[in-house]
Amino acid sequence: MYDIQHLEAFCLVADELSFTKAAARMGYSQSAVSKIIIDLERECGATLFERSRSGVQITAEGLTLLPAAREVVAAQQSFETRVAEVHNLDSGLIRIGTISSIATHWLPKIIAAFQTDYPGIRYELFLGDYEELEGALANGRIDCAFSRLPARYLLNETPLEQDELRAVLPADHELAKLEEIPVEAFADEAFIQLKRDENDEVAEIFAGLEHMPNASFTTWDDYAVMSMVENGLAVSILPSLVLRRVPYRIATRPLAPRAFRTLGFLTRKTSSPSLAVERFREYLDCRNDA
Q1: Which residues form the HTH lysR-type domain (predicted)?
Q2: What is the CA radius of gyration of the chain?
Q3: Which of 147, 213, 221, 232 has its CA 20 to 30 A from that of 94?
């Protein structure tokens, strides 16, 4: 019988491709996680990871065993959650997937309200882009997710808000004199692309244009975009949720025509959410509490 902590460490190292990051998520030392993996490899009679100076890579044997390990870990977590439900949610774990802007502006308020009534619940946050979140939810790595709708996977969707996309400009930019920015105006500007996935909402805005913007920069970080815009390197488009409490000297304007993304809450269709997730869903309206 394999130790559940060994299997959990295996899954986390596979997720992070780093013993150090996996150890941080488990609350262990890096050497302890390394020993756990060595012990598990001895038990399995297989090499699960290749270690080198350039990093950690999962082996073909590891990839073969990983889905089964995930199933065992998920079953253990599900069991712990159900036991917690028997005791009226005195304890338990909710694994939440989210995009960074919701993690910053919505989740603290939702969790604070939920924690007031259910102080024994623990949380594990998984940050990713839309596609990563949907994939993690579909394969059972997380219990629920906040993402853009509609989802590409077959998931239960709860729409929450229409989040307007806005032009982001240096404060002294000529376009900042306009009340709204025609999307065609971006064709003449250096543009910073916030890279999410191949079908992100900004790409959809420009899909019908004859001349595409000159994407001088591509980054994954919202704040890097705003800092570059502040320094006059380019212009961009960001969702309104990202632009809350902005510490940068920039101008934002609505687009013409207006553009929005739909944000929502996702759960799996293939299995019933735990009682903890169902109760957590009841607190989603707390996201905009003062």
Answers
A1: 1-59
A2: 22
A3: 221
How many structural domains is the chain composed of?
2
Under a CB-based contact definition with an 8 Å cutoff, are residues 146 and 264 in contact? yes
Is 269 part of any domain? no
pLDDT exceeds cutoff 90 at 210: no
Give the whole-number percent of the chain exceeding pLDDT 70. Answer: 96
Query: Concatenated DSSP letters for 138-167?
Result: HTTS-SEEEEEES-SSSEEEEEEEEEEEEE
Q: Which of 37, 72, 107 is the last residue of a domain?
A: 72
Residue 289 lies in a domain: no
Residue 24 inside a domain? The answer is yes
Q: CA 240, CA 124: separation in Å to the nearest integer?
A: 26
CATH number at residue 248: 3.40.190.10
Distance CA 272, CA 83 (A): 16
In which band, very low, low, confident or very high, does the pLDDT at 198 lie, cut at 50, 70 and 90? very low
Q: In CATH, what number is assigned to the domain containing residue 44?
A: 1.10.10.10
Please indicate, yes or no, if residue 247 is contained in any of the structural domains: yes
Convert the pLDDT of each residue in 47-65 to its tens digit. 999 998 888 999 999 999 9
Q: Which residues touch 250 (CB under 8 Å, ≥6 apart)?
A: 168, 169, 170, 171, 226, 229, 230
Residue 166 φ then ψ, to 5°:
-130, 150
Domain hosting 43: range is 1-72
